[in-house]
Design a protein that fits this description.
Elements lengths: L1 H13 L19 H11 L5 H9 L8 H16 L11 H22 L2 H17 L3 H14 L7 H36 L11 H16 L4 H17 L3 H16 L6 H18 L2 H11 L8 H16 L3 H12 L9 H19 L14 H7 L1 H5 L6 H13 L3 H18 L6 H15 L4 H7 L1 H9 L16 H11 L2
Length: about 500
């Protein structure tokens, strides 16, 4: 193989690798390069558009000549540098490091084979294959095994190795086929969910769905790759949510978590995804004990302080709110708001927690929970300024922001302010709450309207809302599970709190 190494060294030398553009220390030294300056500007400034970057880079020269060219080179240089980053940091889990290295070698071996360096390439493949098999990178394993069975049946005739790799190749191909088949259904489900509010046609035939459900259940009962487990879990989540069989889904997901945990490696992202799915179910079913069990068993296995960590804690806190564990929810929310990486999270995370905070502050205001040390100050006007993106939503989600204002005015006996808000609330309901899944929100807004008509008297309010209240109880929150997140405190519970504020 030394001859191939010599040839490869000569090839690399002729390719002038010193001209390869990657970020190095020279870009950030005393004589900073334009590329280094651009890198630091993007890193340090809150830039919204390329024009912002252009202005920051060239000052008043808004139409600076050559910006597009250097920006294109910057992107190329950034991409090249990704190939050489050090994965031995806390940014990468064990499996992420393995995937990065296996993927890199997959591309390297393609290049080596294209140039004719077969021995060197096969040597890399044989060193990498055990890693890709261990961590269940099925697509990469199929690629490596294909190269090996081709090599040992043509260039180097070796029956023992040929049979060894062929035996592993066929099951890997079958596994990859299963993963790909399930992924198509997962993609169809994702489309159905994300296109729920636009004109669309169904991509999920009933027979195809039932076939995928049967395959998924079978996979989760036996041995399955990590990607198959994830796809199967998503398919079953969709199916059981559609059929309101939440208990069965919680049971299946719990089994999936056990299977993932039993793997000879940690897959944090997979665990995070399954925990998220479980907590959605505990939210819909108000199952605080199960949420607490998940927290106790798995929260210490996930990465702390990243995006998924906040999402998981959001659904955990929301489950506590739905299960009337208000004090615990308040403590969790305050912990999150004070966490060191909270301010760096995207608006969707920060605003969701600000909404949770607003509702727990209402509970604090009416004496339903006790204050905790280091609790952040809360002001209603400041809160409304903190949730600009949330407030723009026109699909019913931001109903919780409108309602919190009514709750605060009620607690402060500012009835005139409530009357002013009811007009806009009714208009909002007329425009944006027309779908069946908005029935509970529609009913609750009508109940608030009857409270106003009863002049905020408890007896009159009870009389005027008796039928509406019964309709609300008859339409349980799990009837429209996707709408559960819009109710920070379930409307039945919130209505009881409101009645307690009336005279």
């Amino acid at each position: 193989m030394i001859n191939e190494i010599k040839s490869l060294v000569d090839f690399v030398n002729k390719c002038k690798v010193q001209h390869l553009e990657i970020f190095t220390r020279e870009d950030f030294g005393k004589k900073k390069t334009k590329m280094g300056e651009m890198f630091e500007l993007i890193r340090d400034l809150d830039l919204k558009t390329e024009d912002d970057l252009k202005t920051a880079l060239y000052g008043d020269k808004i139409l600076a000549y050559g910006f597009d060219k250097i920006y294109s080179r910057f992107q190329e240089k950034l991409s090249n540098t990704l190939f050489f980053i050090d994965t031995r940091t806390s940014l990468f889990s064990e499996r992420a490091i393995a995937y990065y290295n296996c993927s890199r070698r997959a591309y390297i071996t393609r290049i080596l084979l294209e140039r004719g360096y077969h021995k060197f390439s096969i040597s890399l493949v044989e060193k990498t294959l055990p890693v890709s098999l261990k961590f269940e990178f099925t697509d990469l394993s199929v690629h490596f095994l294909k190269l090996l069975i081709r090599h040992y049946s043509t260039r180097t005739i070796d029956l023992k190795k040929f049979e060894k790799y062929k035996t592993r190749y066929l099951p890997a191909v079958q596994t990859l086929h299963t993963e790909n088949r399930l992924e198509i259904m997962v993609a169809n489900i994702a489309y159905e969910s994300n296109a729920a509010h636009v004109a669309r046609h169904s991509l999920i035939p009933e027979d195809a769905l039932l076939d995928s459900v049967e395959t998924s259940e079978s996979l989760l009962k036996g041995e399955a790759s990590i990607d198959s487990i994830m796809a199967a879990s998503k398919i079953l989540q969709y199916y059981f949510k559609q059929n309101k069989n939440y208990g069965e889904y919680k049971k299946i997901t719990a089994e999936a978590l056990k299977k993932i945990s039993a793997k000879p490696f940690r897959s944090v992202i997979t665990i995070e995804s399954l925990i998220h799915a479980q907590l959605i179910m505990t939210l819909v079913t108000r199952d605080v004990p199960s949420a607490e069990a998940i927290r106790s068993e798995y929260f210490n296995r996930i990465n702390t302080g990243n995006f998924n960590w906040y999402v998981i804690h959001y659904y955990y806190a929301l489950t506590l709110m739905h299960g009337k564990a208000y004090q615990k929810a308040y403590e969790v929310i305050q912990f999150i708001l004070n966490y060191k990486t909270f301010g760096k999270q995207p608006p969707v995370i920060r605003e969701n927690f600000y909404v949770l905070q607003a509702y727990t502050e209402f509970l604090l205001k009416i004496g339903r929970i006790l204050p905790v040390e280091e609790a952040l100050d809360f002001r209603l006007n400041k809160f409304l300024n903190q949730v600009p993106e949330y407030s723009k939503d026109k699909q019913g989600v931001n109903i919780s922001i409108i309602l919190i204002q009514v709750l605060y005015f009620l607690a402060d006996r500012k009835y005139t302010r409530i009357i002013d808000r009811m007009e806009s609330l009714n208009l909002y309901a007329y425009r944006h709450l027309k779908r069946d899944e908005s029935f509970r929100s529609q009913s609750f807004i009508r109940m608030l309207g009857e409270m106003v008509r009863a002049d905020f008297r408890k007896k009159g309010t009870l009389f005027r809302t008796e039928k509406l209240s019964q309709n609300l109880k008859n339409t349980a929150i799990d009837a429209f599970p996707d709408a559960a997140e819009t109710e920070i405190i379930p409307y039945e519970d919130l209505w009881a709190l409101i009645l307690d504020q009336l005279e």
